[in-house]
Amino acid sequence: MGMSVTISAANAEDAEQIFRLQYLCFQSEAELYGNYRIGPLVQSFDSVRAELTADCVMVARLGDEVVGMVRGSLDDKGTAAIGKLGVHPRLQGHGLGARLLHAVEAALAERGDAVRYRLFTGHKSEGNLRLYRRAGYVAVGDRTGEDGVRLIVLEKEAPTADSFAVSA
Question: Best label site of 30, 73, 75, 85, fewest CB within 10 Å?
């Protein structure tokens, strides 16, 4: 490929690429569950654009192309919710998901008093579950999503912002 992938905060100009990439990334999940009404596939463009303003949105870029994304938000009780992690199908399996996950965790830790990180994935999504477990998440429960898919809820304790600092 010749170019390296960079991870950075998304900006308003990324909305359309994120919207299209999200639709592409979550096709395999929809197929796995036989349900094309899962949240990321039915989210409106305006809602994606609003998340760019309200949430912590990180993207992976290959040149000018957004090839990965993840969102995070922090509530007033210190729970950092992470979601809609996706990597372009042609770049999956190269560690970009883990890099995006780490980047949003670090950004959320810098934004406030994160006590824990919480995310969820479908119960059949073995690749996602492996990624999250390798990143230190443990299952803390399950629930049924609005679309009827059984979701596994995972959490891990949030380190202090200092633990993300690079030592000299």
Answer: 75
